[in-house]
Amino acid sequence: MDTSVSAYNENTHVESDQALPITISGLTKRYGSLYALNSVDLEIRSGEFLTLLGPSGSGKTTLLMAIAGFNRPDSGSIRFGDSEMILMPPHQRNVGMVFQSYALFPHMSVAQNIAFPLKLRGVKAAERLSRVNEALETVQLSGLGDRTIDQLSGGQRQRVALARAFVFRPRILLMDEPLSALDKKLRERMQIELKQLHRQLGVTTVYVTHDQREALTMSDRIAVINDGLLMQVDTPEIIYNQPVNAFVADFIGESAMLPLTHTTNGILEFGGQEIVQTPVSGTDRTWSMVIRPERLEIADKQAVPNESLIVFDGVVRESVFQGESAFVLLELSDGTELSLRAGGGTDSRAQRLQPGEQIKISMQRHDVIVIPAGQE
Amino acid sequence: MSWWQSPASDTQVTHGGRLWLYILAIIIMLLLVIPTFIVIPMSFSDSQYLEFPPSTWSMRWYHEYFGSNKWMRATWTSLRIGVLTMLVATPVGTMAAYALYVSGHRAARLIFMYMLTPMIVPVILIAIGVFYFYGRVKLNNSIAGLVLAHTALAIPLVMIIITAALRSYDLNQERVARSLGATRLKAFFVITLPQIKFSVITAALLSFLTSFDEVIVSIFVSGGKTATLTKHMFSALRDYIDPTIAAISTIMVLISTVLLLLVQLAGSRDK
Amino acid sequence: MMVAKSENAVATSSAHTSGASAPGDRSGHELHAKELKQQQRREQWSLLSLALPGALIVFFVIVIPVSWLFFLSFLGSDGEPTLQHYRKMIEYKSYARTFSTTFQVSLFTTLICIAIGYPLAYFLAQLPARWAGIFMLAVLLPFWTSLLVRTYAWLVLLQRKGILNDFAMQIGLWDSPVKLVHNMTGTLIGMAHIMLPFLVLPLYSAMRKIERDLMHAASNLGASPARAFWHIYMPLSISGMVAGSLIVFILCLGFYVTPAVLGGGKVIMVSTQITAILENQFNWGAASALGVVLLIATLLLLFVAARVFKFDAALFGKG
């Protein structure tokens, strides 16, 4: 099931001979009474970079392994293009796969590793050589074909695993937390490189991670998954700016949740301040407001709410200088904790704040996000 | 600061203060090793009796051994049974270990336990049981019967060694190979097997030794023309002491030493 | 407005969260369930069938013979069902002596192994890994050598005119040759030598797992070396020691060759008595019953071991 309106532009990814769409429907996998996948429906478009994002044990890896054929679901359907794949053994699915541990073959050289899928497909020696070299070039490892695996650095291993996964031109590429073993700097560089590679290959890519920042950086779309259920599937911008429930809001980015109360005239308010119109679908349920730290601003002492601005009174608990920004921990009058992030250069006021100081903070009315209260 | 006064442990005991432990450990190790090697000088003695050190040296007992029909036939029988046991137990045990490790089936653990029973049941019980049963199915005094019994004794060893090897191996490699287009069988032979091969060799050598050194089942089940080396040695030891045994023992110690060193080398390669 | 958009998304999500049962599009709900189950079962069976040849061999060599003996142990010489073989074990003095000898030999062998094996394992565990590997050969080499050869070697070493007597008389420990073999002493010496690796190997690996930092911390906190050893190291190594001791004890219970040769007919263990009954009386019922008792004792001990430790650890070693 695809989620609603999206800023995603369908036209950039026409189905081509390089990529296949994946259609997953009713996919269910149970371990005892626990659902690892609970009737998952997901449409992965041809050529897109889709990230499965969720905490450990959420079912994201189970889903990926089901697509690869290593985890047999209890029921459901997985189609690549028009062909049903659910009963197909892994070696006939023709998907490239990169594991978290890379799983390179240590008894083979770099070139032999990459040539392995070609050999299995009966590609002639001469062509094999040229395609291996081509793949090595793509991952910027030209000339390292004769190395053994233990002579490679972590980043190089990652690239070899990648080259091995796409050298046979699969139309689907699966990756299971491929960057988690790398240090932070290298990881950030590889994120960009992977993104570029994806653009170059044009292959449908399903990427698993528990790192929300990585997901936001790399994906065309993100599927947030928890307890075997898809929470929200959408572009990074929408996932971040319009989370559909408390889980998504909490899991992605920093956020605080303020409980809202109904007023008689169909408006939700917080601390006596009108926030938004109650959504039509939910007059009978409770709502919360999601507040992102970077959307808050320190306001003038005399600031008052108006049609474009919401204003809170708060007490500073802690103010921390973090280099490119400053981070302020506040307590609202009702005891709710809020945090505020201010760009260091633009808002120097934030750096001068003392604990205990009374301040006013404001946010734009159009940045308000309301979600059903509580985790469902 | 000399080595003598340098700290030896994490509690600041010096090597000097530890001397008693070193001396004690070396005495214990000598006590472990000497009885294994003492047979070597013994075998070159010229005396009828077990004297040490030998007063005169000779190759007499080696001539005796290599010239004796009885000993030669027994040696060949043992070698044949050992090699056959190795050839059966290694693939059979490896297959079982792999299947049970990979399957993840609820029954796998139980089956594994069951396959270890030859190691748990006292060998004397296996020996007389097999003797009785073989009597019914006419397998006593047969090579096939002994190979079968020895294979059962070797299977738990093979399974323990192979399972340990699989535990330290990343099974995702096999998965990757399959996603790249290899069937499960191909993935096993091309990817998994080359990486656990030294453990497989170790398991093979140990199954050979298990059979070659096995005494109790052989005493009961082998006989006549298929009597094993150990059967003859045992009766020679219990009833009268024939110094030829020193010569045979020397050869056996050499075989074990060579095999052990091979395995140690293989072990360091597998890591 | 953003709010309106997110409202749309909420609607979709509530379809998910409220049990994923929107009517109409549930046709694919149990899709392929039957085929998947079939495939799963087929794969499991084809995997398990790889274990079949081994399982059959074990069945043929262990299950059938041992069950048959179990059956025989309840048959009298006339072929009628009887409990006489078990009754005799309680009534006859000779059986009680055998059981007590077996127990004593096993217990003393285990104790000797602990006394000798603990310092040795400690020494090895304190060495750098490379040196430990080399010194470990001293433990492994006897382990790999035929126990007949080692039993024979002890026969030579311990005899009246053997090296040990010569040496002891030279340094004046005793004046005339002492009988060291064909009795309990010889049996215990030989058994301890053969069993020692079974204790040292698990003990060594348990000691290797003890974090060096712990001892460091203890001494930093002011514990004397001896105190640190008794209060930290000893308790942490005890699981390896108990596991090793259990293996030794269990193996001793059923041991045959060494007591038969070094005991010289004077140390009658259960296993030696079983063969004696077969050789002298050809009484399969009595021999089987004794074997069954031995098996049950072994299984009981293993059951206790499994309760106390992880089973796998207790089973490691060469039978």
Question: Topology of this structure?
Answer:
The complex is a heterotrimer of chains A (376), B (271) and C (319).
Chain A: E1 22-31, E2 34-44, E3 49-53, H1 60-68, E4 75-80, E5 83-84, E6 95-98, H2 110-120, H3 125-138, H4 154-166, E7 172-176, H5 184-201, E8 204-209, H6 212-218, E9 221-226, E10 229-234, H7 236-241, H8 246-251, E11 256-259, E12 261-262, E13 267-270, E14 273-277, E15 287-291, E16 297-299, E17 309-321, E18 325-332, E19 337-343, E20 358-364, E21 369-372
Parallel strand pairs in A: 3-8, 3-9, 6-7, 7-8
Antiparallel strand pairs in A: 1-2, 1-4, 4-5, 9-10, 11-15, 12-13, 13-14, 15-21, 16-20, 17-18, 17-20, 18-19
Helix pairs in contact in A: 2-3, 2-4, 3-4
Chain B: H1 19-37, H2 39-43, H3 60-67, H4 69-103, H5 106-120, H6 123-137, H7 143-167, H8 172-179, H9 184-213, H10 216-221, H11 229-239, H12 244-270
Helix pairs in contact in B: 3-12, 4-5, 4-7, 4-9, 5-7, 7-9, 8-9, 9-12
Chain C: H1 2-17, H2 33-48, H3 52-72, H4 84-91, H5 93-126, H6 129-144, H7 147-158, H8 163-170, H9 184-208, H10 212-220, H11 225-253, H12 257-262, H13 270-281, H14 284-308, H15 311-314
Helix pairs in contact in C: 3-14, 4-5, 5-9, 5-11, 6-9, 7-9, 9-11, 10-11, 11-14, 13-14
